[in-house]
Amino acid sequence: MSTVTLRLPDDTCQRLKQLAASRGISLNKLMEELGTAAIAAHDAETRFHAMAAGADREKALSILDRLDANDRSKAS
Prior knowledge:
Layout: H1 10-23, H2 27-53, H3 57-75
């Protein structure tokens, strides 16, 4: 396990402490969860871009058209 020193504005630090308290967890655990969420979001974006780079644009648009038509039929 690593230790990190993080410099934050006082008001941001206080709000993070309040958020952690409202969730019933430590500030350390909150920062761990936020870090994990940021990594997961980055990984998902990276996978999306990699898949999009090799994708068939016309096929993707066709799928979106079918989904859109399906949504419209449900709304009727």
